[in-house]
Amino acid sequence: QVQMVESGGGLVQAGGSLRLSCITSGRTFTTYFMGWFRQAPGKERDFVAAISPSGGTFYEDSVKGRFTISRDNAKNAVYLQMNNVKPEDTAVYFCAAHYGSTYYDADEYEYWGQGTQVTVSS
Prior knowledge:
The structure is a single chain. This protein is mainly beta. The protein is 0% helix and 50% strand. Strands 2, 4, 5, 6, 9, 10 and 11 form a 7-stranded mixed sheet that branches. A 4-stranded antiparallel sheet has the order 1-3-8-7, with no helix packed on it. It is globular. The mean pLDDT is 97.
């Protein structure tokens, strides 16, 4: 079966860094967009970053210059390097895979991980 497992979340002070990993199995996702979304309590699941099959990257405005998405197609893995984190980055972070190209829309993603908690203290 298809699985996507996030790791790397935790508690970090504002200004610090985290690197989230998403390891997939059960399907080859090299032809899919891979995305990161986040959800805070009481809020919608919001787009954070996405990367195309060819490596093009896309970011939500508030994380530009701070976060970097990357993928390793040989490992069917996707990563999110989070630098200079802020308290408003606190959320559960999900990785997801989308067969099409509407990378910004959570409703279009076919596969999801269970999420990893990121908490940023001030």
